[in-house]
Amino acid sequence: MQIPRIVIAGTHSGVGKTTLTLGLLAALKRRGCRVQPFKVGPDYIDPGLHTAAAGQTSHNLDSWMGSPAAVRQLLLRQSRAADLAVVEGVMGLFDGARGQGEAGSTAQVAKIIKAPVVLVFSAKGLGRSAAALVKGYRTFDPAVTIGGVIANGVSSERHRQYMREIMQELGIPLLGATDNRQSLTMPQRHLGLLPATENNDLPKMLQQLADIIEEQVDLAALWRLARQAPDLTGEEAVPPKPTFAGVQLAVARDEAFNFYYQDSLDFLSELGAKLLFFSPLHDATLPRDIHGIYIGGGFPEQFLPQLSANRAMKEQIRRAARRGMPLYAECGGLMYLCRGISTVAGERYEGVGLVPAEAKMQNRLAALGYVTATLNSPSLLGEPGRQLKGHEFHWSALEALPAERAAYRLSGGRGPAGRCEGYARDNLLASYVHLHFRYNPAAANHLLAACAKYKQRERGAP
After folding, report:
1. pLDDT surpasses 60 at 462
2. pLDDT, tens digit, for every residue of 79-100?
3. Distance (Å, whole) CA 205 – CA 199
4. Which CATH number fits the domain that encloses residue 418?
5. Distance CA 88, CA 95 (A)
6. Is pLDDT of 363 > 60?
7. Nearest in space to 119 (alpha carbons), one of 11, 40, 23, 229
8. Smallest Cα–Cα separation from 435: which of 421, 455, 453?
9. Other beta carbons within 10 Å of 172
10. CobB/CobQ-like glutamine amidotransferase domain location, by residue (predicted)?
11. Looking at the predicted structure, is the pLDDT value of residue 218 above 50?
């Protein structure tokens, strides 16, 4: 299958690749191109911004959690109807999981999907040294095809022309040289950029970014580079059988809870589950006739007064759990299920109360990185000893959580190997670990099997 595709990579974090990617997606959409966005790694916020810019749902290509075949298959499946696939990298081009070589890096994904790379570098304060920088990245791994570069943050037209001459000397195309516009800096929060759901100025900013890209990036040359990507015929997988048809899963989704891997949700649907979305912020009741609840991550700490005041929803969730309904929660969902959540300033708000612990926000990062999670006991996600691959990223910590009820033993990320994490009891599992269900298919099947068993029991079936 021939899919024109490129990877937008940076020399390092903060070089401007997300802003450039958003402008590129918006500019291509403006020209009538159906562009399919992707994000390397476990990030949730950037895919939401991509979706707003491209008008197509963005997906995560993660080569640490998923196999090379799974990564390629996801690219193929989501790009079938696209004119072009644009993949935004993570961190610097060769940065991956700490201490594991190229695992999880943009470079590894570019090789897996056989896509040419557009390298973005900061031109601020650089002259001919830019050639040494680009040459180093270009020769570090010959299996990575760097087909062109974009100099971000040039100071003048003269500087732009100098960058062009330097890259000509090196023999690599300068696909663009964008100037510094501080007024277009994307707003940030402690977990990264402000999510699309909360950025009211995003539509205007996207149009301004599209203007810059059309002025200062050679879109025709970029298209030519994307078309050089080789054919991937024969790589697409057969979808899973819809084993759990009839199972209805309530999924929390609103401004407070929106950190989901879209492909995780797609995989649950492909397995037969019907996803019914609800809002812990705005709804008074759960969806009707459901057989399980999934509360993902997000920013509940930004909406504590509203979440705490919605007593009707909290009571609905408590009643469902007491009836034995499967309840799975990740990160922000774990915080919401605690007895209480406290801000950095010490203000405490009542949570749902199903997890016997207190969640407290901190003024520093509590956990970051890929983790291998080993189940401690029989739970919604499998039997003891099953290993799952996931990711942690949070600024809160739990107090008074009973260690004997820990859901997992973790290795990787921050902290000692074998540390306890999360809470599991009967029909409930809540943890800081984010899972990608297509990359952890056994866990997805086990969760939906528990929902199917609950459905059967509620109907009094044998």
Report:
1. no
2. 999 999 999 999 999 999 988 9
3. 10
4. 3.40.50.880
5. 14
6. yes
7. 11
8. 421
9. 18
10. 249-438
11. yes
- Name the pairing type of β-strands 408-412 and 274-278: unpaired
Total number of domains constituting the chain:
2
- Supply the pTM of this predicted model: 0.92
With respect to residue 238, please indicate whether it lies within any of the assigned structural domains.
no
Q: Kindly tell me the sign of the dihedral angle through the C-alpha atoms of 105, 10, 40, 86.
A: negative
CB 357 within 8 A of CB 341: no
**68 φ/ψ angles, rounded to the nearest 5 degrees:** -55, -40
SS3 314: helix
- Residues 298, 439 within the same domain: yes
Same domain, 253 and 193: no
Q: Which residue is catalytic, options 33, 331, 338, 451?
A: 331
Establish whether 331 is a catalytic residue: yes
- C-beta neighbour count of 51 within 10 angstroms: 17
Q: Which residue has the tokens 């935004």?
A: 88
In degrees rounded to 5, what are phi and psi of residue 210? -60, -40
The CATH number given to whatever domain includes residue 56 is 3.40.50.300
What distance in Å separates the CA atoms of residue 177 and residue 118, rounded to the nearest whole number? 12
Domain that holds residue 393: 248-458
The 10s digit of each residue's pLDDT in 258-292 is: 999 999 999 999 999 999 999 999 999 999 999 99
Whole-number Å distance between alpha carbons of 79 and 56: 10
Which segment of 60-64, 254-258, 365-369, 404-408 scores lowest on mean pLDDT?
365-369
Looking up tokens 């205007």, which residue turns up? 204
Structure tokens at 84: 């072009």
CB 147 within 8 Å of CB 228: yes
Strands 292-295 and 327-330 come out as: parallel
Backbone angles phi, psi at 195, to 5 degrees: -60, 155
